[in-house]
């Protein structure tokens, strides 16, 4: 399908309101989150899903079950019912279907569609992918807002907090950053600004510290994870409890701010664990995703080791039993003990290259072994 043809279709209908057009973004989660065609769904076909499916993922594995609009059938149900007249797949820049690799995400999704729905569904590849479409029809693309492009709420700065030249620490400047539409990351200073929290629509706070106060307990919902930022802290024992809390806020259509003292190590670790568990991405991808939004994140070395161990657990659970729920399998493992049992000591390589176009700090991440 040419970009001009898709542009004409989008002028007539909005994919987000359950029309006859289904747009499937076959790029990685990070690329989709940075920008996508409006209304497109990001298919779940990362390395974890591929391992579980032995290289042949099904639509049940790669498409979300939940509906795009409340009260409407889900995507898979609409496909089964033949409610889509066309399905458009796109990657970053592929020009021809014949040039696609057999193991490319587009090829795997196409085989899954053909295998379950035969020739009944009209499936097209967008010529030139997202790169060309965005250059020709930017008005039909949704760009993820980054901290540099989002103006902070118009809130006067208190006298005791000024710009960097006046002594305000870097981690307290600006405001909390949006990781996901319902998940924000910031510092204790941000958590103490009720006007800022209200301006962002925050309804709950996850306090990942043992000494930061909960300032507005009559106004916001709070949960505290009393951990210190040192190499002896077992923060991983709180991962599942934190993930469940964030999901509970999301389920109530709320927004949660995860913070510690500086918003650099402890709270960043929790956000990384959430992305790894719920978005099924590796630590490296989650780290770059969060760092794009809050460049100063830097979990301590022990926390990075615990996140790597968490990644290996998620991978192992996903590879072990296809029908098993990773969250159910890890729930018992994730229950917090009354106190840390032993310090985490890890030995792994420290250096991962980062894109030169982004001002990233080097991160101590290594790839988990394949299962």
UniProtKB/TrEMBL annotation:
Residues 237-294 form the Tyrosine specific protein phosphatases domain. Its EC number is 3.1.3.16, 3.1.3.48. Its main location: nucleus. Residues 175-316 form the Tyrosine-protein phosphatase domain. The keyword Nuclease does not apply. It is found in: Nucleus. The active site is at 260 (phosphocysteine intermediate). Keywords: Hydrolase, Nucleus, Protein phosphatase. This is Dual specificity protein phosphatase. It comes from Pleurodeles waltl (Iberian ribbed newt). The lineage of its organism: Eukaryota, Metazoa, Chordata, Craniata, Vertebrata.
